[in-house]
Amino acid sequence: MRRTPMLLAVALLAIAGCSNATGSKASTPSTSPTSAAPSPTYDKYDCRALLERSYDEDNVYDASSDPECASLTRDEYVDVVKEVLTGRKDEILEDAGQHIVWDEAWNSTDVDQQELVCDRLRADGAIVVGQEMADETGDNVDEQIEMAEYLLDEKC
């Protein structure tokens, strides 16, 4: 499923709520000399890789406290997040444009019909409903499934 602007908003809100002060380093637990193996050292490239994986898996969250990102300052972390989002800007803009169209169609639909659509999506799932919509309209099946997933996730 394609990411929605809502997921991006969650990521940005999470960044705004980071507990690290600007310019300060996150504290790292001290290791005793008797530790079997030293903790791995991560940098901004490891953090970016984590954020890219999270984005690809549609699992956007504030990763600033994850080991891969914890050693970055707040500003460094925000810069890495910006890099990831900038790299995805075409996809984000395309998704946002499509979602606006779907939102307008949804909002112009009678409330009773919306409830029927939601009941059907919950009962049969977005894939089945999307395939049936594509069969009826002759539209691309992947796009219809994506729309059904969006309606189920965002509207129902």
Give the helix/strand layout:
Layout: H1 5-16, H2 44-56, H3 74-87, H4 89-107, H5 111-124, H6 126-137, H7 141-155
Short overview:
By secondary structure, the chain is an all-alpha fold. It has helices at residues 5-16, 44-56, 74-87, 89-107, 111-124, 126-137, 141-155.
Write out key terms for the chains shown.
single chain; 156 residues; mainly alpha; disordered N terminus
Describe, in plain words, how this protein is organized in 3D.
The chain is mostly helical and 156 residues long. The protein is built from seven helices and no strands. Helix 5 crosses helix 6 and helix 6 crosses helix 7 (141-155). The longest helix is centred in the middle third of the chain and has 19 residues, at 89-107. Mean pLDDT is 81; it is low at 1-30.
Q: Specify the helix fraction band.
A: 55-70%
Tell me the Rg in angstroms: 21 Å
Low-confidence stretches: 1-30
Distance between the termini: 16 Å
Classify the beta-strand content into a percent band. under 5%
Tertiary shape: elongated
What's the overall average pLDDT, rounded?
Answer: 81
β-strand number: 0
Sheet having the most strands: none
Order of helices and strands: HHHHHHH
Structural class: mainly alpha
Number of helical runs?
Answer: 7
